[in-house]
Each structure stands twice: as structure tokens, then as C-alpha cells.
Amino acid sequence: MILVTGCAGFIGFHVCLLNLKNEKNKIFGLDNLNDYYDVNLKKNRLKILKKNKNFYFAKIDLLNKEKVFNYIKLNKIKIIIHLAAQAGVRYSILKPDTYIDSNIKGFFNILEACRYFKIKNLIYASTSSVYGLNKEIPFKENENNTNHPIQLYAVTKKTNELMAHAYSWLFNIPTIGLRFFTVYGPWGRPDMALFKFTKNIFEGKKIDLYNHGKHSRDFTYVEDVARIICDLINKPSLKDVKWNKKNQDTSLAPYKILNISCGKKISLKKFILEIENNLKIKSKKNYLPIQLGDIKDTLSSKKKLNKYLPNIKFTDYKIGIKNFITWYKNYYNIIKK
After folding, report:
1. 131: annotated active-site residue
2. How many CA atoms lie less than 13 Å away from 193 in the CB half-sphere?
3. Domain encompassing residue 91
4. Is 8 domain-assigned?
5. Would you say the pTM of this structure is higher than 0.90?
């Protein structure tokens, strides 16, 4: 039995969809359906998932420990994919309390459930934002320092990684933390760049380009992310054979951290150009200074991921953007005049 928290969210929805392709899987989903962004988008994702007889949903806030425990006990959950969180770099500057509640207190309740119900594998979401002030790229899990975050969102996710290690060590709980790199694609979040750019270009509005558009990102297609998560379900983290002092990520606990990325750096200007090419509309740009909390460039090393899951193929960003815009047009019934 598999539990997916944040099942109505962007990544959670795609993870559930992919898991449900296997008729043997029963997926139990939790989500509090908060209003951080359009709740109707979350409800429409759920409508699709509920069409499958093997999907079961409960509206539960992870801060309600009693309800979370009862749901896990009742459904005999053995694997947890924890994707519920308060997302967003910029929002964490405006509403920090929300991040402490959702990302730390909520995660604590999940870890306690893993301990109490002897969960066989916990896969949870972290973020590339933990790399903070690092200048050297590509970012490597074992080598880059993650002690200099530049916004609270990253702090809460780094805290999750530390909490997971403690529980792995103390209670022998297999945990795998996934540092996601700019996930995008169909059914994406309205607060993210691809969604906002597409919407504004369609509506003839200017798109805001912070750092004067000089950012670059390791864009990772959401269906690739979902596939990796599903592949990890039956690959719980195992204890390493021995301690290696040179490798700061190695631990005798059944604990792992993995970068989840395409492994290619794409400039924001190239990304926007591809959106324009698909829409056949030239964007109007509003160039702005770098925004507080933003990392200028991200690029991931895939070496560790490839070792753990060899032969992974990733979707080219041009195909990913095309797929998103096709979805966007269909979802909003946009007809080109």
C-alpha cells in the first residue's frame, strides 16, 4: 500500500497517475487542498485520479497527527511518498510561518508515522534551493556545502534532510531525499515561470525577468521526475558498507540524498524563446534586478542518480515546453484568433 502526500499537487498528481498504470497498485492520497494557488486546478487533478478505482483520497492536513496516523493504520500503508509541502521561494519571504508549519511540523508527523508503523521506504521532496550560495556547478550531493541557504524555503527542506537522517539512524527507517531542480510540465503550478510566462504572453502582458533575464536553470520535466520516483519505490536506501570520511553524504544509516534533474543548464532567454516559438507570439519583457532569495544559476550532477538508477532518459526542454503549452491551451480552451 502506497501513500502519496500532496497528491493533488503538481508532482504528486503525476506520481499517482504513473503508479496507477499498474493495476496491482493501490494509491492512497492525502492533501489539504490549501489556497496557495488556484484550488480548482488541484480539484481538477483529483477528478482525473478519482476515475481510477485503485485511488483513494482523504482531505487531511499533515498537522493533524491523529488523523494522519489513523489513515496510515487503517490502510496498512507500507511506503510513503511525501510530496506535500509549502512550495515557493518568494512566498517564503512573505509568509514564513506557513513553511515552518507545513514543511517542518508536517514532516515531523510523517517521520513519527514511519517510526510507529515501521514504514519500509520513505521518499520525500527536498529542493535544489538547498545549494544556496554555492558558486561551483554542477551541484553535487556529496561535495557541495548546503549550509548557506538564502531563503527560508531552503532552510525548511535542509531541515527535512537532517530530520530524515536522524530518524534513519535511530530507527532504521529507509529514507531517500530528492533535491528537485525546477520541475515543469503539464498541470504545472501557476506560480512558476513557465505557467506565468505563457499566461502573460497570451494576455499581451509583460513578463517579469529578474536579474535582467540572466538566470539559467536545470529544467526537469515532470513526467521524468514521476518515473524516477516510481522506480525508487522498490529501491529503499540501504546501509552503506563502511564510513568514508571524505564523503560527507555517506552514513551508516539507511539514508540517501539524490539530485533529480535533467543535468543540462538552459538560459532563461532560450527557455522564453521556445515558449514564443510555440505560441507564435513575441513576449513583452519587464527587466528587473535580481529578486531576494533567487539563485542565479542551477545545474545538477547526475552522477549519483545514474549510479543508483542507470539508463534514465530525460525529455528535452523543447518537447517539454510544447507539451505544456498544448495542455495549457486545452485546459483553458484557448482558441487562436
Report:
1. no
2. 21
3. 2-184+219-264+298-316
4. yes
5. yes
Q: Does the residue 292 lie in any domain?
A: no
Find all residues with CB under 8 Å of 184, minimum gap 6, and list them.
Answer: 192, 193, 194, 219, 220, 221, 222, 320, 321, 324
Q: Is residue 327 part of a domain?
A: no
Pairing, β 79-82 against β 216-217: unpaired
* Segment (H or E) for 199: helix 193-202
- CA dist 239 and 78 (Å) reads 19
How does residue 161 score in pLDDT terms, banded at 50, 70 and 90?
A: very high
Rounded to an integer, what distance in angstroms lies between the CA atom of residue 164 and that of residue 45?
Answer: 29
pLDDT in tens, 122-134: 999 999 999 998 8
Report the number of distinct structural domains present in the chain.
1
Query: Would 213 be classed as within a structural domain?
Result: no
The domain that contains 153 carries what CATH number?
A: 3.40.50.720
The catalytic position among 37, 99, 124, 153 is 153
